[in-house]
């Protein structure tokens, strides 16, 4: 008989036997006792390292099962037995030892290793996990003698124990719940969340309570209370409650279910439009709250009072239903102001600002913040933002109405209705950058922006924004000397800012042109020398602009040799006589010089030179745009010639075509912009969005539908290419035609691009180009027809206000002829209203209704 070979160790590559698989399946199914018995037999037969490992796993599963059944003594005995029999498994059983100590209340045994300096990070993490998930007695942890009194765990447990007792005994201040002793990394952090959840529950802050409960780790010891608290808060729990949790929820919640039911019913009645039902529900809710939760009665009355005010219920009836008026304090006024500012009604927005002012006064008295603190400054800014929601001229009307009713009242009494006073107060208290920036943005919409910028600069001299604004404003008034002084300040603040770096060249150029306007060529020459000294003046085509200015200066000084030299230099630098003449002509127009001798008529230009006009025009426009020193004025004949030459000039690139198209749009020359867009659309798909936008801008206003479709196609292509500049402009054009929007699918976009490429002729009344009516949902109401540029007759307009008037009430107030049916009278009233709206005369109205001409004669 062949002897059975001895196995010295596990064969790692061998597949698991059926017995091993069966044992592991029993462990997985929670049948730890049967698994342990099978593992013992298997190890007795095999006696291998693998069988020993499997046996230890079965013992561990059995010990864990005993702990789950709260058989701590039995589990500890079995754990000691396994440790003695299998010393090599001690490390694998360490987690169970900690679990056993925690479940058995042996906090000292659990925490004593924390004082060992040689404790590994993994061992420390295991102990902290056991504390977090298994220790339920905070008092025992706070009194643990195995740790020194100053240990962080003991201090945290003591603070939590105190807070837990306080929060379950009565109202607790928010500061008492900060618990700085418990960090968010502490194993006791879940208890901190639980304490705050309990506080929120008693304050009636259900949403906050729910958030704290959701943040607690599900396996933490503190999580045992989550199901009970969910039941107390009316939240559906996952599965039935334990008897202890059910008892706790019943004893704590008391009759809160009745109060919650009453409040839910009150919420539902607010959604309706029956004042009687609302007030009845208010009475029931207040009665339930006064009996069950009297500490919250004032807060409930405030909330209900504000809600009733927002829907316009009578104040006295609401006060009677509440059993007396709500307490008027800072909290109430904040609720009321918040509610009123959600409205779109101008008067209610003004009322909101008045409520915010009253809130400010109460808040200061109640110690919320100081009268001149940063909180008050932010409140002033908020009130100013609310006022900006009031459209048009409504705010002056509201102010005048209030001041006329309140005799003896001054503007200062109602300062909260004057944005400038609110901004002024905010910036006086807390003069930070954002406050002044908001004030200046508001002032730019009306008058006084320079005064605001000056105040900003005086208080915060190192802020760049007001200096740049003042520089631009003075430059627009052609006060270039002052503008240059502001530029000096801006350069000292931030000389590398793009607007600052570009400003000096632009301001000096404008100053030269102003001196030429004033016929002071010698001063213009001095400024020109300053420009020439700037390094940036020698970049690109800028020397040509300097030469053109020199041409005009020499003309003002009657320096004929200088004129000839400057003209030759300008033409040489631009490599085109046409471009040189256009540049000098434009500068001469701005400087109010005689332009008759500076520009040839288009008919006097030779055919070869005419072909150069588009490129010359593009170059001059780009140069003037780069210098930003003047607005370019170009003769109509040259724009016409450029529009005609573009289709015959294939040498123009996309940049030149874009410049020409934008120049045509700015000059109101649709033919030039259209021709540039036609040529640009042929350049390829990358430029299609910008040239479709140009096509929309070039089309006449009476082709509103075609303009909108081109803009919609440009929007879709710009989104695909992430071209934000084109997207914003195209959306604006589209909004002007169809505020509701117009979207095209990819197939429609391709169709629009193809048709626009094929349509090179500028539209006329006889041939308006492609028909896109199939891409637009048409509406034939007068407003939509007017948007499309179609004619709308006066009598097609309907008096919308008349539709809202009860016709029967009007007829009752009139003395009708006895033989006139009410239906006829109603029809006559409607026709008369239309006649008044359209300006139709009485004779025309008579003719239209009767079909007869009224006899001419003296009216009595």
Fold and architecture overview:
The chain is mainly α and 860 residues long. It is 65% helix and 0% strand. The protein contains 45 helices and no strands. It starts with 17 loop residues before the first helix and ends in a 10-residue tail after the last helix. Mean pLDDT is 81; it is low at 1-14, 795-805 and 854-860.
Number of helices: 45
The largest sheet, given as strand count, sense and whether it forms a barrel, is: none
Please give the radius of gyration in angstroms: 43 Å
User: Uncertain runs with pLDDT below 50, 5 residues or more?
Assistant: 1-14, 795-805, 854-860
Structural class: mainly alpha
Query: What is the β-strand count?
Result: 0
Helical amount: 55-70%
Mean pLDDT: 81
Distance between the termini: 146 Å
Note the overall shape.
extended
Strand content: under 5%
Secondary structure elements and pairings:
Elements: H1 18-28, H2 32-46, H3 49-68, H4 72-85, H5 94-103, H6 107-111, H7 121-134, H8 138-142, H9 152-167, H10 189-203, H11 206-215, H12 226-232, H13 243-253, H14 256-271, H15 275-292, H16 297-310, H17 315-322, H18 330-340, H19 346-365, H20 374-387, H21 394-405, H22 419-429, H23 433-443, H24 449-459, H25 464-476, H26 480-494, H27 498-517, H28 521-532, H29 542-556, H30 560-574, H31 577-590, H32 607-610, H33 613-627, H34 636-645, H35 654-667, H36 670-681, H37 688-698, H38 704-721, H39 724-737, H40 746-758, H41 782-787, H42 800-803, H43 807-813, H44 822-838, H45 842-850
């Amino acid at each position: 008989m062949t002897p059975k070979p001895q196995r010295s160790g596990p064969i790692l590559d061998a597949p698991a036997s059926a017995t091993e698989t069966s044992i592991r399946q029993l462990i997985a199914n929670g049948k730890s006792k049967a698994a342990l018995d099978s593992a013992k037999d298997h190890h007795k037969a095999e006696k291998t390292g693998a069988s020993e490992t499997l046996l230890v796993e079965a013992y561990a599963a059995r010990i864990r099962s005993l702990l789950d059944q709260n058989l701590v003594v039995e589990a500890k005995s079995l754990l000691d037995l396994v440790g003695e029999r299998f010393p090599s498994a001690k490390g694998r059983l360490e987690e169970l030892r900690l679990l056993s100590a925690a479940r058995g209340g042996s906090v000292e045994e659990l925490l004593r290793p924390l004082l060992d300096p040689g404790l590994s990070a993994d061992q420390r993490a295991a102990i902290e996990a056991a504390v977090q998930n298994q220790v339920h007695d905070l008092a025992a942890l706070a009194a643990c003698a195995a740790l020194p009194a100053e240990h962080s765990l003991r201090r945290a447990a003591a603070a939590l124990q105190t807070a837990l007792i306080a929060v379950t005994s009565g109202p607790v201040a928010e500061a008492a719940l900060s618990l700085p002793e418990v960090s968010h990394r502490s194993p006791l952090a879940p208890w901190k969340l639980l304490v705050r959840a309990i506080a929120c529950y008693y304050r009636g802050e259900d949403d906050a309570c729910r958030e704290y409960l959701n943040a607690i780790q599900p396996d933490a010891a503190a999580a045992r209370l989550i199901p009970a608290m969910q039941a107390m808060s009316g939240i559906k729990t996952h599965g039935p409650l334990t008897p202890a949790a059910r008892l706790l929820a019943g004893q704590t919640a008391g009759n809160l279910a009745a109060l919650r039911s009453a409040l839910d019913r009150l919420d539902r009645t607010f959604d309706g439009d029956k004042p009687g039902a609302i007030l009845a529900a208010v009475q029931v809710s207040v009665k339930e709250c006064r009996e069950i939760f009297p500490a919250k009665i004032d807060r409930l009355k405030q909330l209900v009072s504000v809600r009733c005010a927002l829907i316009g219920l009578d104040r006295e009836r609401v006060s009677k239903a509440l059993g007396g008026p709500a307490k008027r304090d800072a909290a109430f006024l904040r609720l009321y102001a918040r509610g009123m500012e959600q409205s779109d009604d101008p008067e209610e927005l003004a009322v909101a600002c008045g409520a915010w002012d009253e809130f400010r006064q109460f808040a200061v008295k109640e110690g919320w913040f100081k009268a001149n603190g940063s909180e008050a400054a932010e409140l002033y800014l908020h009130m100013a933002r609310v006022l900006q929601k009031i459209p048009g001229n409504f705010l002056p009307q509201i102010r005048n109405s209030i001041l006329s009713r309140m005799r003896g009242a001054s503007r200062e009494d109602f300062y909260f209705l004057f944005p400038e006073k609110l901004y002024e107060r905010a910036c006086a208290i807390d003069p930070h950058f954002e406050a002044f920036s908001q004030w200046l943005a508001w002032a730019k919409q009306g008058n006084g922006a320079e005064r605001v910028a000056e105040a900003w600069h005086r208080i915060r001299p190192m802020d760049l924004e007001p200096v740049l604004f003042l520089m631009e404003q003075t430059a627009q008034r052609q006060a270039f000397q002052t503008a240059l002084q502001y530029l000096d300040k801006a350069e000292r603040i931030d000389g590398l800012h793009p607007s600052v770096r570009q400003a000096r060249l632009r301001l000096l150029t404008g100053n030269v042109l102003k001196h030429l306007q004033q016929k002071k060529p010698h001063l213009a020459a001095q400024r020109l020398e300053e420009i020439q000294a700037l390094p940036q003046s020698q970049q690109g085509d800028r020397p040509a602009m300097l030469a053109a200015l020199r041409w005009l200066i020499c003309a003002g000084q009657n320096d004929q040799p200088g004129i000839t030299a400057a003209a030759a230099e300008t033409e040489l630098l631009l490599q085109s006589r046409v471009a040189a003449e256009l540049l000098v002509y434009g500068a001469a127009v701005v400087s109010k010089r005689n332009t008759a001798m500076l520009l040839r008529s288009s008919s006097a230009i030779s055919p070869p030179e005419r072909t150069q006009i588009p490129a010359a025009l593009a170059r001059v426009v780009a140069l003037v745009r780069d210098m930003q020193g003047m607005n370019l004025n170009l003769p109509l004949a040259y724009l016409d010639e450029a529009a005609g030459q573009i289709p015959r000039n294939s040498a123009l690139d996309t940049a030149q075509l874009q410049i020409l198209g934008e120049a045509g749009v700015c000059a109101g020359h649709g033919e030039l912009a259209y021709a540039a867009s036609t040529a640009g659309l042929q350049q390829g798909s990358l430029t299609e969005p910008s040239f479709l936008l140009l096509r929309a801008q070039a089309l006449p206003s009476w082709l509103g539908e075609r303009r909108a479709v081109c803009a919609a196609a440009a929007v879709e292509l710009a989104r695909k290419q992430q071209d934000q500049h084109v997207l914003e402009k195209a959306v604006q054009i589209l909004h002007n035609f169809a505020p509701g929007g117009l979207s095209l699918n990819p197939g429609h976009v391709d169709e629009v691009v193809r048709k626009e490429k094929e349509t090179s002729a500028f539209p006329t009344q006889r041939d308006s180009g492609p028909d896109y009516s199939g891409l637009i949902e048409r509406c034939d109401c007068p407003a939509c027809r007017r948007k499309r540029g179609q004619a709308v007759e006066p009598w097609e307009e309907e008096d919308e206000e008349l539709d809202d008037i009860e016709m029967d009430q009007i007829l009752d107030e009139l003395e009708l002829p006895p033989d006139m049916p009410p239906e006829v009278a109603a029809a006559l009233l409607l026709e008369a209203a239309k006649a008044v709206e359209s300006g139709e005369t009485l004779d025309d109205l008579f003719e239209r209704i009767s079909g007869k001409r009224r006899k001419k004669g003296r009216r009595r």
